[in-house]
Design goal:
single chain; Rossmann fold; 4 helices
């Protein structure tokens, strides 16, 4: 499965943002160990947003993140945030699995 990994990104400090990304990347590594392909929408969007300083950074990140998640077969939630909750809803609306623990994700066949 192509599994989105979502959780908080935005934070008051750059250190907390980095810690949030590290937590999502660590979870993504565990998804990969189970034989699935993990994707993190924020990771896909950050460098693109850096190249578009004339546009609303939050909108660029959200647009790309949500588009990535819409193509996934499931989502692993590492925590709650306004953006992550929207990503979860995108998956739920399709009737696809929402996981809250890596242990709940089955091994790939």
């Amino acid at each position: 499965m192509l599994i989105a990994v979502a959780g908080p990104y935005s934070a008051e400090s750059e250190q907390q943002k980095a810690a949030n990304l590290k937590a999502m990347n660590a979870a993504a590594a565990e998804v990969y160990r189970k034989g699935h392909i993990p994707v993190i929408g924020v990771n896909a969007s950050l460098y693109v947003a850096d190249e578009l300083p004339d546009l609303n950074r939050k909108k660029v990140i959200s647009d790309i993140s949500f588009a990535v998640v819409e193509r996934c077969d499931a989502i692993l939630m590492t925590g709650s945030s306004p953006g992550a909750d929207i990503e979860r809803k995108l998956i739920e609306e399709k009737g696809l699995p929402v996981y809250y623990s890596i242990d709940d994700i089955p091994e790939a066949k």
